[in-house]
TrEMBL record:
UniProt keyword Mitochondrion present: no
A Pfam family assignment: adh_short
Membership in a protein family: Belongs to the short-chain dehydrogenases/reductases (SDR) family.
Matches recorded under Gene3D superfamilies: NAD(P)-binding Rossmann-like Domain
Molecular function GO labels: carbonyl reductase (NADPH) activity
Protein name according to UniProt: C-factor
Protein backbone atom coordinates (compact mmCIF):
# COMPACT_ATOMS: atom_id res chain seq x y z
CA UNK A 1 0.00 0.00 0.00
CA UNK A 2 1.10 3.58 -0.58
CA UNK A 3 0.68 4.28 3.14
CA UNK A 4 -1.44 3.06 6.04
CA UNK A 5 -3.12 6.45 6.43
CA UNK A 6 -3.61 9.18 3.86
CA UNK A 7 -5.17 12.65 4.13
CA UNK A 8 -6.11 14.51 0.94
CA UNK A 9 -7.43 18.06 0.87
CA UNK A 10 -9.96 19.14 -1.75
CA UNK A 11 -11.15 15.61 -2.45
CA UNK A 12 -14.74 16.22 -3.53
CA UNK A 13 -13.84 16.65 -7.21
CA UNK A 14 -10.97 16.70 -9.69
CA UNK A 15 -7.64 15.16 -8.79
CA UNK A 16 -8.42 14.80 -5.09
CA UNK A 17 -11.56 12.76 -5.77
CA UNK A 18 -9.68 10.60 -8.28
CA UNK A 19 -6.95 9.94 -5.75
CA UNK A 20 -9.51 8.73 -3.23
CA UNK A 21 -11.16 6.56 -5.90
CA UNK A 22 -7.90 4.90 -6.87
CA UNK A 23 -6.73 4.42 -3.31
CA UNK A 24 -9.79 2.32 -2.56
CA UNK A 25 -9.30 0.07 -5.60
CA UNK A 26 -8.65 -3.49 -4.59
CA UNK A 27 -5.18 -4.76 -5.52
CA UNK A 28 -4.96 -6.07 -9.08
CA UNK A 29 -8.44 -4.96 -10.03
CA UNK A 30 -7.72 -1.35 -10.82
CA UNK A 31 -5.92 0.56 -13.48
CA UNK A 32 -3.26 -1.59 -15.19
CA UNK A 33 -0.68 1.12 -14.54
CA UNK A 34 -1.30 0.73 -10.86
CA UNK A 35 -0.95 -3.01 -11.00
CA UNK A 36 2.39 -2.66 -12.76
CA UNK A 37 3.64 -0.27 -10.16
CA UNK A 38 5.37 -1.14 -7.07
CA UNK A 39 6.68 -4.21 -5.57
CA UNK A 40 5.36 -2.81 -2.32
CA UNK A 41 1.87 -3.69 -3.60
CA UNK A 42 -1.30 -1.70 -3.85
CA UNK A 43 -3.33 -2.86 -0.92
CA UNK A 44 -5.71 -0.24 0.34
CA UNK A 45 -4.75 2.25 3.01
CA UNK A 46 -6.47 1.46 6.28
CA UNK A 47 -7.50 5.08 6.77
CA UNK A 48 -8.26 7.57 4.00
CA UNK A 49 -9.26 11.00 5.25
CA UNK A 50 -10.93 12.77 2.35
CA UNK A 51 -11.49 16.40 3.21
CA UNK A 52 -13.74 18.86 1.45
CA UNK A 53 -15.41 22.18 2.15
CA UNK A 54 -18.99 20.97 1.89
CA UNK A 55 -19.49 17.26 2.57
CA UNK A 56 -23.27 17.55 2.16
CA UNK A 57 -22.70 18.63 -1.46
CA UNK A 58 -19.98 16.08 -2.19
CA UNK A 59 -22.19 13.32 -3.58
CA UNK A 60 -19.49 11.53 -5.58
CA UNK A 61 -17.10 11.46 -2.66
CA UNK A 62 -19.81 10.34 -0.25
CA UNK A 63 -20.70 7.48 -2.62
CA UNK A 64 -17.10 6.29 -2.43
CA UNK A 65 -17.18 6.58 1.36
CA UNK A 66 -20.50 4.71 1.56
CA UNK A 67 -18.90 1.78 -0.26
CA UNK A 68 -15.56 1.84 1.53
CA UNK A 69 -15.39 1.89 5.30
CA UNK A 70 -11.78 3.09 5.25
CA UNK A 71 -12.82 6.41 3.63
CA UNK A 72 -13.73 9.15 6.08
CA UNK A 73 -15.16 12.36 4.70
CA UNK A 74 -14.17 15.24 6.97
CA UNK A 75 -15.15 18.87 6.51
CA UNK A 76 -12.25 21.28 6.02
CA UNK A 77 -11.96 24.65 4.39
CA UNK A 78 -8.18 24.86 4.28
CA UNK A 79 -8.32 28.62 4.80
CA UNK A 80 -10.28 28.34 8.06
CA UNK A 81 -7.45 28.21 10.57
CA UNK A 82 -9.90 28.48 13.46
CA UNK A 83 -11.17 24.99 12.60
CA UNK A 84 -7.73 23.39 12.59
CA UNK A 85 -7.78 22.50 16.31
CA UNK A 86 -10.89 20.34 16.09
CA UNK A 87 -9.86 19.04 12.68
CA UNK A 88 -6.47 17.85 13.96
CA UNK A 89 -8.19 16.15 16.90
CA UNK A 90 -10.53 14.34 14.52
CA UNK A 91 -7.58 13.23 12.40
CA UNK A 92 -5.94 11.90 15.57
CA UNK A 93 -9.04 9.84 16.36
CA UNK A 94 -9.11 8.41 12.84
CA UNK A 95 -5.43 7.53 12.47
CA UNK A 96 -4.92 6.39 16.06
CA UNK A 97 -1.57 5.86 17.76
CA UNK A 98 0.18 4.98 14.50
CA UNK A 99 -0.14 8.58 13.31
CA UNK A 100 -0.67 10.05 9.86
CA UNK A 101 1.59 8.73 7.11
CA UNK A 102 0.73 10.86 4.10
CA UNK A 103 -0.61 14.41 3.80
CA UNK A 104 -1.48 15.50 0.25
CA UNK A 105 -1.92 19.27 0.02
CA UNK A 106 -4.08 19.14 -3.09
CA UNK A 107 -6.79 21.81 -2.66
CA UNK A 108 -6.16 24.68 -5.01
CA UNK A 109 -7.68 27.53 -6.97
CA UNK A 110 -6.70 29.13 -10.28
CA UNK A 111 -8.28 32.48 -11.05
CA UNK A 112 -8.66 33.27 -14.71
CA UNK A 113 -7.12 36.72 -14.69
CA UNK A 114 -4.03 36.72 -16.86
CA UNK A 115 -2.45 40.06 -17.63
CA UNK A 116 -1.16 42.85 -15.43
CA UNK A 117 -4.02 45.23 -16.27
CA UNK A 118 -6.62 42.68 -15.21
CA UNK A 119 -5.17 41.37 -11.98
CA UNK A 120 -6.94 42.32 -8.73
CA UNK A 121 -5.54 42.58 -5.22
CA UNK A 122 -8.12 40.31 -3.66
CA UNK A 123 -7.58 37.68 -6.34
CA UNK A 124 -3.88 37.49 -5.56
CA UNK A 125 -4.32 37.31 -1.81
CA UNK A 126 -7.17 34.78 -2.04
CA UNK A 127 -5.11 32.53 -4.30
CA UNK A 128 -2.06 32.76 -2.10
CA UNK A 129 -4.18 31.96 0.93
CA UNK A 130 -5.49 28.69 -0.52
CA UNK A 131 -2.51 27.53 -2.58
CA UNK A 132 0.37 28.71 -0.43
CA UNK A 133 -0.52 29.76 3.11
CA UNK A 134 -2.86 26.84 3.81
CA UNK A 135 -0.34 24.10 2.89
CA UNK A 136 2.16 25.62 5.33
CA UNK A 137 -0.28 26.07 8.18
CA UNK A 138 -2.07 22.75 7.71
CA UNK A 139 1.22 20.87 7.55
CA UNK A 140 2.31 22.66 10.73
CA UNK A 141 -0.95 21.70 12.44
CA UNK A 142 -0.70 18.05 11.40
CA UNK A 143 3.00 17.68 12.25
CA UNK A 144 2.40 15.86 15.55
CA UNK A 145 0.52 13.10 13.70
CA UNK A 146 3.12 12.94 10.92
CA UNK A 147 5.94 12.72 13.47
CA UNK A 148 4.12 9.95 15.30
CA UNK A 149 3.93 7.97 12.06
CA UNK A 150 7.58 8.63 11.21
CA UNK A 151 8.60 7.43 14.67
CA UNK A 152 7.01 4.02 14.11
CA UNK A 153 9.97 3.11 11.92
CA UNK A 154 13.61 2.63 12.91
CA UNK A 155 16.44 4.40 11.10
CA UNK A 156 16.44 7.57 9.07
CA UNK A 157 15.34 6.47 5.60
CA UNK A 158 12.49 8.32 3.93
CA UNK A 159 9.40 6.85 2.26
CA UNK A 160 5.82 7.92 1.68
CA UNK A 161 4.79 4.77 3.50
CA UNK A 162 6.62 6.08 6.57
CA UNK A 163 5.63 9.78 6.61
CA UNK A 164 5.35 12.35 3.84
CA UNK A 165 3.97 15.71 2.80
CA UNK A 166 3.19 15.98 -0.91
CA UNK A 167 2.41 19.45 -2.20
CA UNK A 168 0.47 19.47 -5.46
CA UNK A 169 2.17 22.21 -7.41
CA UNK A 170 2.28 23.14 -11.09
CA UNK A 171 4.74 23.75 -13.88
CA UNK A 172 3.17 27.21 -13.96
CA UNK A 173 5.15 27.86 -10.79
CA UNK A 174 8.35 27.57 -12.79
CA UNK A 175 10.23 30.86 -13.01
CA UNK A 176 12.70 29.61 -15.58
CA UNK A 177 9.98 28.34 -17.90
CA UNK A 178 7.69 31.37 -17.70
CA UNK A 179 7.68 32.63 -21.26
CA UNK A 180 4.03 33.68 -21.42
CA UNK A 181 3.79 36.02 -18.43
CA UNK A 182 0.48 36.79 -16.76
CA UNK A 183 -1.30 34.45 -14.34
CA UNK A 184 0.12 36.42 -11.42
CA UNK A 185 -1.86 34.85 -8.61
CA UNK A 186 -1.48 31.24 -9.71
CA UNK A 187 2.14 31.37 -10.83
CA UNK A 188 3.20 33.18 -7.66
CA UNK A 189 1.26 30.79 -5.45
CA UNK A 190 2.85 27.68 -6.96
CA UNK A 191 6.37 29.16 -7.15
CA UNK A 192 6.03 29.98 -3.47
CA UNK A 193 4.68 26.50 -2.77
CA UNK A 194 7.81 25.05 -4.34
CA UNK A 195 9.97 27.25 -2.13
CA UNK A 196 7.92 26.02 0.82
CA UNK A 197 8.50 22.41 -0.18
CA UNK A 198 12.22 23.06 -0.10
CA UNK A 199 12.10 24.69 3.35
CA UNK A 200 9.90 21.93 4.72
CA UNK A 201 12.30 19.33 3.36
CA UNK A 202 15.13 20.95 5.33
CA UNK A 203 13.07 21.44 8.49
CA UNK A 204 11.50 17.98 8.52
CA UNK A 205 14.49 15.86 7.44
CA UNK A 206 15.44 15.31 11.06
CA UNK A 207 11.93 14.04 11.72
CA UNK A 208 12.25 11.55 8.84
CA UNK A 209 9.32 13.08 6.96
CA UNK A 210 9.66 13.09 3.18
CA UNK A 211 8.54 16.29 1.42
CA UNK A 212 8.11 16.82 -2.32
CA UNK A 213 6.22 18.92 -4.87
CA UNK A 214 4.33 17.21 -7.69
CA UNK A 215 3.04 18.59 -10.97
CA UNK A 216 0.07 16.42 -11.96
CA UNK A 217 0.30 17.27 -15.66
CA UNK A 218 -2.36 19.13 -17.60
CA UNK A 219 -5.44 17.25 -16.46
CA UNK A 220 -9.11 17.22 -17.46
CA UNK A 221 -10.64 18.66 -14.33
CA UNK A 222 -12.68 21.80 -13.72
CA UNK A 223 -9.36 23.61 -13.41
CA UNK A 224 -7.57 21.99 -16.35
CA UNK A 225 -10.53 22.10 -18.73
CA UNK A 226 -11.79 19.46 -21.09
CA UNK A 227 -8.99 19.87 -23.64
CA UNK A 228 -6.29 18.83 -21.22
CA UNK A 229 -3.79 16.11 -22.12
CA UNK A 230 -4.51 13.69 -19.34
CA UNK A 231 -7.54 12.20 -17.71
CA UNK A 232 -7.58 12.30 -13.92
CA UNK A 233 -7.27 8.50 -14.04
CA UNK A 234 -4.01 8.68 -16.01
CA UNK A 235 -2.51 11.42 -13.89
CA UNK A 236 -3.36 9.91 -10.54
CA UNK A 237 -2.41 6.35 -11.46
CA UNK A 238 1.06 7.58 -12.35
CA UNK A 239 1.27 9.80 -9.28
CA UNK A 240 0.44 6.82 -7.07
CA UNK A 241 3.12 4.78 -8.79
CA UNK A 242 5.58 7.57 -8.15
CA UNK A 243 4.57 7.87 -4.50
CA UNK A 244 5.32 4.19 -4.01
CA UNK A 245 8.81 4.69 -5.34
CA UNK A 246 9.79 7.85 -3.48
CA UNK A 247 12.84 7.70 -1.25
CA UNK A 248 15.44 10.08 0.21
CA UNK A 249 16.42 10.79 -3.40
CA UNK A 250 13.10 12.57 -4.00
CA UNK A 251 13.19 14.64 -0.81
CA UNK A 252 12.87 18.41 -1.37
CA UNK A 253 12.47 17.98 -5.12
CA UNK A 254 9.84 18.70 -7.76
CA UNK A 255 8.49 15.91 -9.92
CA UNK A 256 6.02 15.63 -12.71
CA UNK A 257 3.33 12.94 -12.38
CA UNK A 258 5.45 10.58 -14.46
CA UNK A 259 8.59 11.33 -12.45
CA UNK A 260 9.49 7.70 -12.29
CA UNK A 261 10.90 8.18 -15.76
CA UNK A 262 13.38 10.60 -14.26
CA UNK A 263 12.71 13.47 -16.63
CA UNK A 264 11.74 16.02 -14.01
CA UNK A 265 14.28 15.84 -11.25
CA UNK A 266 15.28 19.43 -10.71
CA UNK A 267 17.48 21.09 -8.16
CA UNK A 268 15.92 24.06 -6.38
CA UNK A 269 13.17 26.46 -7.29
CA UNK A 270 15.06 28.92 -9.43
CA UNK A 271 16.48 26.26 -11.71
CA UNK A 272 13.27 24.32 -11.89
CA UNK A 273 12.60 22.80 -15.28
CA UNK A 274 15.80 24.04 -16.84
CA UNK A 275 16.97 20.47 -17.35
CA UNK A 276 14.01 19.48 -19.44
CA UNK A 277 12.55 20.50 -22.71
CA UNK A 278 9.17 21.93 -21.98
CA UNK A 279 6.88 23.55 -24.45
CA UNK A 280 4.47 26.35 -23.78
CA UNK A 281 2.10 27.47 -21.12
CA UNK A 282 -1.15 29.09 -22.05
CA UNK A 283 -4.56 29.65 -20.67
CA UNK A 284 -8.08 29.65 -21.97
CA UNK A 285 -11.50 30.28 -20.58
CA UNK A 286 -11.60 26.58 -19.83
CA UNK A 287 -8.63 26.69 -17.55
CA UNK A 288 -4.89 26.68 -17.27
CA UNK A 289 -2.49 24.10 -18.52
CA UNK A 290 0.98 23.36 -19.58
CA UNK A 291 2.10 21.03 -22.33
CA UNK A 292 5.24 19.14 -23.06
CA UNK A 293 4.67 19.51 -26.80
CA UNK A 294 2.32 22.21 -27.96
CA UNK A 295 1.13 21.51 -31.47
CA UNK A 296 0.75 24.45 -33.83
CA UNK A 297 -2.96 23.69 -34.19
CA UNK A 298 -3.44 23.87 -30.43
CA UNK A 299 -2.28 27.45 -30.09
CA UNK A 300 -4.93 29.83 -28.86
CA UNK A 301 -4.94 33.49 -28.11
CA UNK A 302 -4.45 34.39 -24.50
CA UNK A 303 -7.61 36.17 -23.41
CA UNK A 304 -8.35 38.38 -20.46
CA UNK A 305 -11.23 37.43 -18.19
N1 LIG B 1 -5.86 20.23 -13.50
C1 LIG B 1 -4.67 20.63 -13.90
O1 LIG B 1 -4.36 20.64 -15.11
C2 LIG B 1 -3.63 21.00 -12.89
C3 LIG B 1 -2.32 21.31 -13.37
C4 LIG B 1 -1.34 21.64 -12.44
C5 LIG B 1 -1.64 21.66 -11.09
N2 LIG B 1 -2.91 21.37 -10.64
C6 LIG B 1 -3.15 21.43 -9.20
O2 LIG B 1 -3.80 20.24 -8.77
C7 LIG B 1 -4.60 20.49 -7.61
C8 LIG B 1 -6.01 19.97 -7.84
O3 LIG B 1 -6.53 20.63 -8.98
P1 LIG B 1 -7.80 20.10 -9.79
O4 LIG B 1 -7.42 20.13 -11.20
O5 LIG B 1 -8.33 18.87 -9.18
O6 LIG B 1 -8.79 21.33 -9.53
P2 LIG B 1 -10.37 21.39 -9.32
O7 LIG B 1 -11.03 20.31 -10.08
O8 LIG B 1 -10.73 22.80 -9.57
O9 LIG B 1 -10.54 21.04 -7.76
C9 LIG B 1 -10.02 21.91 -6.79
C10 LIG B 1 -10.31 21.33 -5.43
O10 LIG B 1 -9.77 22.22 -4.45
C11 LIG B 1 -10.78 22.48 -3.50
N3 LIG B 1 -10.64 23.75 -2.82
C12 LIG B 1 -10.53 25.00 -3.35
N4 LIG B 1 -10.48 25.92 -2.36
C13 LIG B 1 -10.55 25.23 -1.20
C14 LIG B 1 -10.55 25.60 0.16
N5 LIG B 1 -10.47 26.89 0.56
N6 LIG B 1 -10.63 24.64 1.11
C15 LIG B 1 -10.72 23.34 0.74
N7 LIG B 1 -10.75 22.91 -0.52
C16 LIG B 1 -10.65 23.86 -1.48
C17 LIG B 1 -12.08 22.44 -4.31
O11 LIG B 1 -13.20 22.34 -3.44
P3 LIG B 1 -14.65 23.05 -3.80
O12 LIG B 1 -15.36 22.06 -4.68
O13 LIG B 1 -15.27 23.24 -2.48
O14 LIG B 1 -14.34 24.33 -4.53
C18 LIG B 1 -11.81 21.20 -5.14
O15 LIG B 1 -12.06 20.04 -4.38
C19 LIG B 1 -4.56 22.01 -7.41
O16 LIG B 1 -3.63 22.32 -6.40
C20 LIG B 1 -4.07 22.53 -8.75
O17 LIG B 1 -3.43 23.78 -8.64
C21 LIG B 1 -3.90 21.05 -11.52
Amino acid sequence: MVARSVLITGSNRGLGLEMVRQLVLAPRTGNPKLVEAPRTGNSKPEVIIATCRSPHQAQKLCEVADNNKNVHVVQLDVTDESSYGSFVSRVGELVGPQGLNLLVNNAGVAPKSTRINMVRWQQVTDTLTVNTVAPIMLTKALLPHLKTAANQVEGDSLAVKRAAVINISSVLGSIARNEQGGLYPYRASKAALNAITKSMSVDLRGNNILVASLHPGWVQTDMGGKNADLTPTDSISQILSLLHQMTDHHHGQFYQYDGEQGRWRIEGVYTMFTEVTFGTEQNTKAGIWSRSKLRESDKVEIKEH
